Amino acid sequence: MKTIEFTGLENVQNITQGLQQLLADLQVHYTNLRGYHWNIKGKDFYFLHEKFEEMYDDTAAKVDEVAERILMLGETPVHTFSQYLKTAQVKETGVVANGNEAVKNILDTYKHLIASERALVESASEIGDETTVALLSDYISGQEKEVWMLTSFLS
Fold first, then answer.
1. What pTM, to 2 d.p., does this model score?
2. Which pLDDT tens digit goes with each residue over 1-56?
3. Among 28, 48, 49, 50, which residue's Cα sits nearest to residue 109?
4. DSSP state, 92?
5. φ, ψ (nearest 5 deg) of residue 67
6. Cα angle value 65/30/110 (rounded, 5°)
């Protein structure tokens, strides 16, 4: 017995593929955030160290929610970093100790994530997948607020 049999949803392959892509992107983003948190230096250390921790905790929660949504739609979420690195469009950044550089990298990642999530919202809407729409709409809302705050920080 599968969850999808009770939802009334059909033709979810595009949604699950998009969610697998999002999962890979979020996992690489999470790892980048951890690196920024560990390696940040300079006058903004205290603020950014705490902010990056808040961001990676939030991203870890999103990773779990996306993986669970994939399961609800009848697929198995990818769970190996080798597969994430093959799939992700977000790239590893390596060691970044400069706060402005880290924030610019995060903004680039949010630009990509928001665009991907908007495309997935559109696809999910077309098949009546309101659960995925709601999940991703919440992500977009939070990420847009982060973009506003981070661009203000850089100003």
1. 0.96
2. 788 878 888 899 999 999 999 999 999 999 999 999 999 999 999 999 999 999 99
3. 28
4. P
5. -60, -40
6. 85
